[in-house]
Amino acid sequence: MSIETLSMAKALNNGLRKALADDPKVLLMGEDIGPLGGVFRVTEGLQAEFGANRVIDTPLAESGIVGTAIGLAMRGYRPVCEIQFDGFIFPGFDQITSQLAKLTARHEGTLSMPVVIRVPFGGHIGAVEHHQESPEAYFAHTPGLRVVSPSTPHDAYWMIQEAIASNDPILFFEPKSRYWPKGDVDTSAPGIPLHASRVVRVGTEVTLVGYGPMVPMLLQAAEIAAEEGTSIEVVDLRSISPIDYGPLVASVQKTGRLVVAQEAPGFVSVGSEIAATVTERAFYSLEAPVIRVAGFDTPFPPAKLEAAYLPDPDRILDAVDRALAY
Amino acid sequence: MAYTAATVQLLSETGELVSSALSEPYLPIIENLSDDQLREFHRQMVVFRAIDVEAANLQRQGQLALWIPSLGQEAAQVGSGFAAKPQDHIFPAYREHVVGRIRGVDTIKIIEILRGLSHGGWDPAEHGNFHLYTLVIGSQTLHATGYAMGITLDGRAATGDPDKDEAVIVYFGDGASSQGDVSEALVFAASFQTPEVFFLQNNHWAISVPVTRQSRTPLYLRPSGFGIPGVQIDGNDVLASYAVTTASLDAARSGGGPQFIEALTYRMGAHTTSDDPTKYRDDAELDFWVRHDPIVRFEAYLRSRGADDAFFAELAEEAHDAANDIRLRTLALGVPDASSMFTHVYTEPHSLMQEQQAWLEAYEASFEGGAS
To answer: Which A residues in the span 153-182 are in contact with B, Cβ-Cβ below 8 Å?
Structure first.
């Protein structure tokens, strides 16, 4: 074991540095990622270390970033694109969903598309419009893409390296609200594979599941519930496409109750998908309907209202109470 | 929008070499061409036109869901296609069937797309670096630009050895010129000084909308705003297409940065077989372009260089045979196994693919000999 205590932003920075050092075909591309180190400083120092041909400040054009990354991948490179904020990904939506996602299939196996698209996402940072969104469901819905989201510095350090090593395109959603809190990173081993989910707290009465920024909220809720005498199990999904249902279904078979939580709007969302699939696979174990806790189906509100919009431990515990009432 | 004072033309409309201030820089390039090479240009244009007409017939007979004619655009495509060197990479739009043939893509691969059997499927590395078609208008210009950025990063342009230098040529149309991706590609190409030629076939119509709705300025002037030189050519003159593309690719390969060619041509047929140009085009315009048919013009030039009736008769027979061959092979195409749709969505295992493929196979098997 080799433990370092790092923020997620620094863990990502270290993971990117290692990927750049390990494989000369890895490139970083994005807006302001060079001398500035990105608006969240995730790429800080990397251009100075690896040069402007490996860490490329691009023109301000998201479709251009993704579209040229596709061409670079065709040439044998492994581009890692940074989209500056969640709400700015949509100018690149065609290149991601109609081009990047389909090119492997269209080449019938003779070409792979090892492109990673890093997306700082989610709320809790008090920012202006288009800077706090959670667009992951659009991409999980698109065949040909993989979608992951780390919740801890340890996972961030390893998952970014595993995503870069994958030959498939990966949307890598980084929870902005978790960039700064520190955690232990074991730099000697990842622990589990990129697309595996994990039970992060053991309990017996209700299962809570989420990913990325929601996981610490779920753990807080479980802690509060424990003080009130309710035993809660928490599953960190880590991967949204594909979803590793094994640990989740096993947990629900044990507890009989599931609450799924996310910052994204709930309608036609990752939470909806989980509710449907767990109902299919663990129907006879369920003591209550699967309950979703999500952002409201409104545009992300002005920042002073975000506390009312985003799920918090109280809203999660309210859902736990409803599940236990059946 | 026909020819302008800036249009580079090497072969007059009656098939004679043009000596002008605009043509002079390019004439040495075609002086190097042998009679065999010139006849090969013509052969590709004539044979493909026959295949093109036959494929449209196949669509009318219900054998293809769609056909995308390139009738009238053969010179722009054949000239530029032959200008590319083997090491160059070609990013087509979706109408450059004859460029594909020149680079080794059998037209049956295009037929497979339009018969609903594939979405492409050829390996560019095994087919003359001719990349897959892109149906979302203009998207491929960014792929081409990224690829060209990769050539620069690899140090494979401006090496000082013209036989090793690589470049990219990307095809798009007058309609695509309005797409944001095309502007972004020009920005990236200029910023990174990519070894790349943007080849715009202005065939004057984006389905039913005339080029005047796409641009109020001649399209060859547009790249100058991006810091990229542009040149307008007579796209129905195969020699102009060959010579100007050769010069542009040479400039791109040797470190001159991106280049831009607007080839004035005309889609003599429909946009696709789903289109009906009689609803929006007038006869006078079509008549003008029929009189500027690239094949008629080049035949006159070849005759002036000594090609005889026997050559053209033999070529007509070859074209007829090629059309017949594509028909027979189209009718013989099989349908892929349904489970193949899961095979290449990802390169590495993905649980949904595995589960759904297994489900489909079990579902289909349940009908074989099962009680009902």
So the answer is: 166-168
- Among the CATH numbers 3.40.50.300, 1.10.10.10, 3.40.630.30, 3.40.50.920, which is that of A198-324? 3.40.50.920
Mean pLDDT across A109-125: 96
Contacts of B153 (CB under 8 A, 6+ apart): A27, A53, A72, A75, A77
- Tokens 């991601």: give the residue: A96
What b-and-e string marks burial along B165-200, b requiring 16 or more CB atoms within 10 Å of the CB?
bbbbbbbbbbbbbbbebbbbbbbbbbbbbbbbbbbb
Best residue in B184, B187, B191 for a mutation probing chain A (most A CBs within 10 Å): B184
Judge residue B227's burial from the number of C-beta atoms within 10 Å of its C-beta, 0-12 exposed, 13-18 middle, 19 or more buried.
Answer: middle
Give pLDDT tens digits for A152-191.
Answer: 999 999 999 999 999 999 999 999 999 999 999 999 998 8
Q: Which CATH architecture has domain A3-186?
A: 3-Layer(aba) Sandwich (3.40)
C-alpha distances (whole Å) from B170 to each of A80, A195, B259, B372 are: 24, 37, 11, 55
Answer whether A168 sits within 8 Å of B347, measured CB to CB: yes
Q: Answer whether B184 sits within 8 Å of A108, measured CB to CB.
A: no
Rounded-to-integer distance, Cα A175 and Cα A262, Å? 12
In order of A33, A46, A153, B189, B192, the CA distances from A52 in angstroms are 10, 9, 27, 16, 11
Distances in whole angstroms, Cα of residue A166 to Cα of each of A112, A195, A244, B176, B320: 10, 11, 17, 33, 49
What is the ipTM metric for this complex? Answer: 0.97
Q: What is the pLDDT of residues B91-118, one digit of tens each?
A: 999 999 999 999 999 999 999 999 999 9
Domain ranges of chain A: 3-186, 198-324
